[in-house]
Amino acid sequence: MLQTRVLTAIVLAPLVLGAVLLGEPWISLLVGIVIFLSMVEVISLLDAAGYEPPQVLMLIAGFVTGAAGLVAANNGLVGGALNDLLRATSTPGLSIVVFAAAVLLIGVASFTRSDPRVGFQSWAAGIFGVAYVGLLAPFVVVVAHLAPPDGSAATEVGALGLRSGAAWAIMLVVLVWGYDTGAYFSGRWLGRRRLIDHISPSKTIEGLIGGLVTATVAAGVGGWIIGLDAWHALLVGPLVGLAAQAGDLGESLLKRAAGRKESGFLIPGHGGMLDRVDSFLFAAPVLAGYALVVVGAVA
Q1: Given 117, 143, 169, which residue is the final one in a domain?
Q2: Where among 111, 143, 175 does a domain terminate?
Q3: CB neighbours (10 Å) of residue 187?
Q4: Residue 240 and residue 279: Cα distance in Å, rounded?
Q5: 61 with 130: CB under 8 angstroms?
Q6: What is the pLDDT of residue 191?
Q7: Partners of 200 in the beta sheet?
Q8: Cβ-proximal residues to 165 (8 Å cutoff; 6+ apart), any chain
Q9: Is the per-residue pLDDT at 199 higher than 80?
Q10: Per the structure, how many domains does the chain have?
Q11: Do 39 and 58 touch, CB atoms closer than 8 A?
Q12: CA 137, 96, 101: angle at the middle one, nearest 5?
């Protein structure tokens, strides 16, 4: 099992880091693929849990909501009709407009269920799935567009002279992977006390502590790449580490409701796409918020 996970990571890591370093449109294309595949898995899990969401409509709504977030994150790079659409929806935001449309359409679809309770469950589950993936995943691209207050995402920062957007995206990756790796090995070697047994029996308090330690170290490396003061690592490491763990537990809660051990079988040793990106869904908004509010970055 561990060997399979390592081999899969060796294959996937260069693809992820390559997209990060190449920038747009590759990182948005990669996140768009992730959104589509994750939506397919979320729909399958909700259906297995008995919520019976409108599958085709939910898939379209989730993907279009995610695509709206990607377009909004790339606002400085789009033109023509997309730029006009961004300008027209600037007050509530394009993602919110699309999500509101998804709420209405999925609600109308629920009217066809003969049992009102089933219809309401279908409506609520559909909205959840769209928000869970379609609203959260684009924050990965928001992170990849972060810039210094007086610069742009292309401004060179830090000791390595990387583009600001790429440097922040690398920080997100090393934080989440650092937390996951530290939690996995410390939990495996030292784990004794269960963290939240009814959701994920394999998670331990020792794994959580080990993950937070490695996330803090990873934050120090990421901060050095970006050019942040060293004290930021002591805050952003535990903060994003806890968010990554919450993202993992959130997906575990969904899988337990569906009676599934994994969200899919796409990635050997890791299960489905959602199993691989669940931590990023929670970690990316937290890192983006920290950068915007505490560091003073701009997006």
Answers
A1: 143
A2: 143
A3: 21
A4: 9
A5: yes
A6: 77
A7: 196
A8: 23, 143, 144, 145, 146, 147, 153, 154
A9: yes
A10: 2
A11: yes
A12: 110
Do 132 and 61 touch, CB atoms closer than 8 A?
A: no
pLDDT tens-digit map of 202-244: 899 999 999 999 999 999 999 999 999 999 999 999 999 999 9
pTM: 0.91
Could you tell me if 15 and 83 lie in one domain?
no
Structural domain that includes position 134: 27-143
pLDDT digits (tens, 9 = 90+) for 2-55: 566 666 667 678 888 899 888 999 999 999 999 999 999 999 999 999 999 999
Max Cα-Cα span within the chain: 62
Q: Cite the DSSP H helix spans in 111-262.
A: 116-129, 139-143, 164-190, 205-226, 232-258
298 forms beta bridges with 147
Nearest to 201 by CA among 261, 280, 132: 261
With beta carbons less than 8 A apart as the criterion, state whether 179 and 240 touch. yes
Question: Over the range 64-103, which residues count as b (16 or more CB within 10 Å of their CB) and which as e?
Answer: bbbbbbbbbbbeeeeeeeeeebbeebeeeebbbbbbeebe
Region label for 162, one of left (φ > 0), alpha (ψ between -120 and 50) or beta (otherwise) = beta
Q: Shortest CA distance to 67 belongs to which of 15, 25, 104?
A: 25
- DSSP H or E segment with residue 195: strand 194-196
- Residues 110, 169 within the same domain: no
- Residue 168 neighbours by CB under 8 Å, 6+ apart: 143, 144, 146, 226, 287, 291, 297
